[in-house]
């Protein structure tokens, strides 16, 4: 028979498990009045940016597939015994996807910053004394 397994926990974990209570759920504050037209403009601007990003993503992925179909020699060239098309998929695509993601996040942040400058929220943008 194998030895009995022991469950090890830290003292803090044992105390928390023994109490069995959870932290108090704090209620979120009631939101103030919303400028629905400004929110709608912001939503549309961010949706346009997302559509642009998806279009670029499609061009990148389908363009690479199209390049492999148009230039079958990319599969025949084998640096180090690995087809060049595989190397392009493994090495080139991921940095491009990362750059595309960074570009999208930054453009979404710029859209939000522009909307905040045009329609500042009450209490924001004022210096505290």
UniProtKB/TrEMBL annotation:
This is DUF485 domain-containing protein. The chain crosses the membrane at residues 49-74, 86-105. Keywords: Membrane, Transmembrane, Transmembrane helix.
């Amino acid at each position: 028979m194998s030895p009995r397994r022991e469950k090890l926990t830290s003292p803090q974990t044992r105390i928390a498990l023994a109490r069995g209570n959870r932290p108090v759920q704090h209620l979120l504050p009631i939101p103030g009045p919303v400028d629905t037209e400004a929110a709608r403009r912001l939503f549309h601007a961010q949706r346009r940016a997302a559509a642009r990003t998806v279009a670029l993503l499609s061009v990148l992925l389908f363009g690479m597939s199209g390049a492999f179909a148009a230039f079958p020699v990319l599969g025949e060239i084998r640096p180090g015994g690995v087809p060049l098309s595989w190397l392009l998929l493994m090495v080139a695509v991921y940095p491009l996807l990362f750059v595309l993601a960074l570009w999208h996040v930054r453009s979404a942040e710029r859209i939000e910053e522009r909307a905040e400058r045009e329609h500042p929220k009450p209490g924001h943008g004022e210096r505290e004394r």
